[in-house]
Amino acid sequence: MKRHRILRHIKKYHLLLILVSLFGIFAGSCRKSNDYIRIEGGVWNTLWHVTYRGPQSLADSIPATLASVGGSLNVFDSTSVVSRVNRDEKVELDSHFVRVLEISKIINRETGGAFDPTLGPLIRAWGFGPGHNVSPDTARVDSLLRLVGIGKTGVSGKYLSKRDSRIEFNFSAIAKGYGCDMIAAMFERNGVEDYLIEIGGEIRCGGISPKGGEWRISVDKPEWSMTSANHESQEIISITNCGIATSGNYRNFIKDSGRTFGHTISAVSGRPVATDVISATVVAPTAMEADGYATAFMAMGSETGLATARRLNLPIMLILSDSTVVTTPPFDKLTSPREQY
Length: 341
Description:
With 341 residues, the protein is an alpha+beta fold.
């Protein structure tokens, strides 16, 4: 089976262009642009960008924070906590793993199982995750489904318990958002209130932007292309003191033998989801929550997703396969008139 190139430059995805905060011109700002420090780097097969107003010395703490998170949650690191858990080794869980597991269980429960980080074996079987061996064999998929279910795991003391030793975790759908939150926590411990942190499209922001108001974020229109560098804006919103994430199969998929598979795998069927949603944007108190819920809404479809978002009072925007855009009232309150940009 001849495989085509796997696109992985940016997770899931998406994506959110950071307007003003990263590349904007700060003329007319009520604060001088040199009050803010802007730095970038690479991590987990993607890029990160950070803008903040505070001591230059804190820049060195950003890679250290990401290294700490990766040492716990990066499935591509064979020495990480999650990799050792997946090999069923007796390894003490750290605070990162415990916290992400805790929030994952909440999102799993609130979305009726649509978000589940124990999809590791299926993610790998469909050509994503470590190994990238495409094997969408019906019998194999059905057998792997028996290993899915975050409810089949728990924490006992300092260790993870699993009903089946073959259960594996893949936190890729929440780890980047969590990384943003950890950098934000580091900033706030050091008295930094004004910041925007972006990792592979997931964002956490706080305080005020260099223009003196809330941070303005642009959400991309979906573009089914493995090479396109064009990013046309679907919507611009103004936010602060929260997280935002967009999930979409149009930026992370594989093509194999003439077929296209999106990266979002259904915890029910064990196969790439086939819903009317091609892009889901979520605003939540943390980037981790936004990250996880965005993945869930991709898998749920628009009808169930909107009902769930309304029940949870979450600001979301869904772009459907026919280009229809649907939002919840809390999201509408965040939209920013384009003429102000």
